[in-house]
Each structure stands twice: as structure tokens, then as C-alpha cells.
Inverse folding.
């Protein structure tokens, strides 16, 4: 097995910036809630500490940062191109909560400003912060795009959105 280094060549600094504790806690619970990792899985702690978790079986890599848009796009594009997987970037802001950016494998364009949405016990969905756009279901099988919304009305949309501001959990309450 080849070791993957995330240090920038010739500079020696990490390719992925270190994340804050609050961002790491949301990142870990998001991976578990999405079904990409188990709480006792090997490599989860290391992945959470580095802000990077790849699941080749699901065909997705998930990264986390507390940087604002558009920071971190170049590093994630290089990572997605190297890994040849879909990429989900969790951005955590202590006041705004968690939002997500998606880069599909082979696409040059980012899909930005998605929110986590979930019914109690259901899969994690990434829904657009605005009313229109693609919807993505994320689970152990990967990132699956959908045209239609997973909710029926505005109340269900609002009730299922998880920002994880105060509590790091991504468990659905709706």
C-alpha cells in the first residue's frame, strides 16, 4: 500500500489546514450519522483529526474546514482529482452552523451552500440553502443526486434542517 502524504511539495506545510475542535466534533458525528463510518471504526479518529475521510466503497471523500468560501476550494479540487471520488466539504461556522459544498467526480464546478436535512432515523440529505437546485442523499452507498426534494412542504424542510450550531449531532429530530 502506498502512503499518501498531504504535505505540499517543497513547502512542507500540510495541504489541508488544521481544523478547530468544534469543526472536528461536527465532522466526526456527520461521518457517523451519514453511515460512512462507525464510532469504533479504525481510522476514524485519524480522519477526524486531519479533517479528511475517504470511503472508496461509497465513492466519496469528505473534508471539513472552518474557512469561509472560496477558501479551501483549490486544495479540495486537487484532492478530488487525485482520489477520483465525489467530494463533500463540510464548512462549520460557530454562528451560521454547518453548510456543505459538493464537487462531483470529473466536474469542474462546485455546488455550494447545501444544508444537512434528515428525518428521524433516515439518511442524511444535502439540500440547497435556497429553494431550488439538486438534492443529494449521502449514506454508506455514496453520494446520490436527486431532482426532487426529500420533503413534501416548507414545514418539513425547516423541521428537518440540521445546522449543528449548539449540538454537534446530526441526528434527525423530525
Amino acid at each position: 500500500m502506498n502512503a499518501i502524504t498531504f504535505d505540499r511539495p517543497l513547502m512542507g506545510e500540510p495541504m489541508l489546514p488544521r481544523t478547530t475542535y468544534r469543526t472536528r466534533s461536527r465532522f466526526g458525528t456527520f461521518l457517523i450519522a451519514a453511515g460512512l463510518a462507525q464510532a469504533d471504526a479504525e481510522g476514524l479518529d485519524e480522519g477526524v483529526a486531519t479533517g479528511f475521510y475517504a470511503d472508496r466503497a461509497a465513492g466519496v471523500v469528505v473534508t471539513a474546514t472552518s474557512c469561509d468560501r472560496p477558501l479551501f476550494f483549490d486544495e479540495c479540487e486537487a484532492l478530488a482529482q487525485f482520489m477520483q471520488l465525489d467530494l463533500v466539504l463540510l464548512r462549520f461556522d460557530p454562528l451560521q452552523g454547518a453548510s456543505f459544498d459538493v464537487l462531483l467526480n470529473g466536474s469542474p464546478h462546485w455546488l455550494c451552500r447545501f444544508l444537512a436535512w434528515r428525518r428521524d432515523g433516515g439518511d442524511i440529505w444535502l439540500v440547497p440553502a435556497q429553494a431550488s437546485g439538486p438534492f443529494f442523499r449521502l449514506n454508506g452507498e455514496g453520494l446520490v443526486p436527486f431532482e426532487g426534494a426529500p420533503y413534501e412542504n416548507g414545514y418539513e424542510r425547516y423541521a428537518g434542517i440540521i445546522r449543528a450550531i449548539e449540538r454537534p449531532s446530526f441526528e434527525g429530530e423530525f
